[in-house]
Specification:
By secondary structure, the protein is mostly helical. It has helices at residues 2-87, 99-106, 110-122, 140-164, 167-173; strands at residues 96-97, 126-129, 132-135.
């Protein structure tokens, strides 16, 4: 009887172990499935976030390019206005121009004025000094030089046009 009882206990323990093992396998399969689903969701979310970041970067680059174009356009406008004012004598030779005075007068920030002054300095129309921009303008000697250069260039251009003109070019001018 003891042996039969022992066999029954062993069989019961084995069945219980199989049930526990089956439950553990089901639990592991469920955890694995949930983990795979979580990984898939996280991967999808990561891809979505990556696309959002790429879109935001593209929009930021676009905004920077537009701002740069706007600033360059504004700078070009202020450059042309300042250049014209200097050349027509609104600002006298050796007059000192400051970013603050010009920006207040023109109603813009100092940045486009600073860039316009930098370009005028490159053109040798003004000279940047520690106190501001000193107007150089154009002297009578500069004007004579400009006309001398123009005469030579236009003469050279006319000679080259005459030498290289085709019969069609000559006919179209008649």
């Amino acid at each position: 009887a003891a042996k039969s009882l022992m066999n029954d206990i062993a069989a019961s323990a084995e069945r219980r172990a199989q049930v526990i093992l089956k439950d553990a396998e089901l639990e592991a399969a469920m955890i694995t499935r949930e983990a795979k689903e979580s990984i898939s969701r996280l991967t999808d979310e990561g891809n979505r976030l990556r696309r959002n970041v790429e879109n935001l970067r593209a929009k930021y680059r676009q905004m920077l390019e537009l701002e740069l174009e706007r600033t360059e356009s504004m700078t070009a406008g202020w450059f042309e206005e300042l250049e014209r004012d200097i050349l027509v004598g609104t600002y006298a030779r050796d007059e000192l121009l400051t970013e603050i005075k010009l920006s207040e007068k023109m109603g813009v920030s100092r940045t486009p004025i600073r860039e316009a002054l930098r370009r005028l300095d490159q053109e040798h129309i003004i000279e940047i000094t520690p106190k501001g921009a000193r107007v150089i303008g154009i002297t009578p000697d500069d004007i004579r030089d400009i006309f001398e250069i123009r005469l030579r260039i236009e003469g050279l251009a006319a000679r080259w046009a005459a030498e290289k003109a085709t019969d069609e070019d000559i006919a179209s001018m008649k």
